[in-house]
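Try it yourself: sequence plus nicotinamide-adenine-dinucleotide, in.
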Amino acid sequence: MKSYETLINRQKNFFNTHKTKDLSFRLEALTTLKSVITTHEKELMDALKRDLNKSEFDAYTTEIGFTLKEISFILRHLRSWAKPQKVKTPITHMGSSSYIYSEPYGVSLIISPWNYPFQLAMAPLIGAIAAGNCAIIKPSELTPHTSKLIAQLINDTFPEEYIFVEEGGVETSQALLSENLDYIFFTGSVPVGKIIMEAAAKHLTPVTLELGGKSPCIVDQDTNIKLAAKRIAWGKFLNAGQTCIAPDYVYVHQNIKDAFLEALKTAIQELYGEHPIRNNFLTHIVNEKHFNRLTTYLSDGTTFIGGNTDRDHLIIEPTVLTDITWDDEAMQDEIFGPILPVLEYNDMDSLIEGINNSPNPLALYLFTENKDVQNNILTNISFGGGCINDTIYHLATPYLPFGGVGTSGTGAYHGKSSFDTFSHKKSVLKQTTLFDIPFRYPNAKNALKRIKRFLK
Ligand code: NAD
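Structure, out:
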């Protein structure tokens, strides 16, 4: 196994010069990153096309534009976030004042997946830079063109002792993980998340784990069926369903099931045409292994719409399955592809109980105008984040932290949360020397009696 000790020591030495903590250094690095991305937009689009057949529209909105917007937002706010934050001080601490200092951890390792190969490597990097860390990025081996371009752009722009991209697969990842790092930010699957946490535990390295799982989408009776179907079709089939927060399956109220399925059919046809298999803009499945995994689900239940595949081009049409039960293959694991099982329900309480008996979802979507139903779901199901009457959109705002809970992840990022995630919050109390409250000391007269007035 290759050793990364030298690289990590070089980054630690550079970090110890304190240059990365300087606010103007961070702002300059972010501005440089933004300009590199803007200059190479076309090459990035080409790489994403070659790896996944992403359309220019998808490549820009979900990868390049998303990243640029995140940098702009952080550039606008970093000055104020980076300042020590003054907080209240209790009366028991009379004379002193309290501050929270945000300090970088040091050398952070960012391991990213293939589904949004550019954005999911860059968004954590932006947080790492903003907080003043050094960073090593290990992009996904399954999207080689994008990963190669990321390595080329970053390694040509930044000195290796500050930011470095190392391409490679599992072995590279494990070799990096065996080193003593200061922070690990991992995006990927639940089983690999467990491996990452185990490796981090050896050095007590703090982690963020952005994982996955089955994200439910509930369509209640009291909803605009047509709009719900359109927003669900968009969120599910975007990137061929290879989105960590894509609706994994739909639970529709039995009274509106038929109308909803018809609206879903119309929405899919509007988005992808009468014969989606012939649509040149469909994102491909990442590789044959995933294609084979996904096509086994096509024999579950009844195919309501779609179901056609093209093995040569790794395409699976947007597909909706009905007559599905929890014993079916498609319901055992996260689908992560363009296949949407639609199940029906008539009792909200047993639906909630069912979801709560499964691992915590990364996302949950609820379509209803009924406020009581909204409150019932929001209060009684734990999930990473989600939307009422929409899908995916909660991820695309820098004002909402994005992350999972339980098996769907630990920690969150985006916007200020990215800065916070890559910063240790150092609490500091500044005490006066002008006076000294006597009853804090046990030998003061009536110390216990007086202290009891404050500590109750
Ligand atoms: P993955 O876990 O297989 O791989 C992710 C990264 O980990 C890759 O860089 C890979 O090289 C590395 N890796 C793989 N096996 C490893 C091992 N044994 N030891 C160390 N490193 C290893 O995930 P993937 O297939 O690339 O991505 C799909 C998964 O990621 C889905 O489960 C999806 O839900 C999840 N995901 C989550 C988010 C999120 O933000 N929460 C975003 C995108 C994808």
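One thing you can check immediately is this: The chain has 15 helices and 18 strands.
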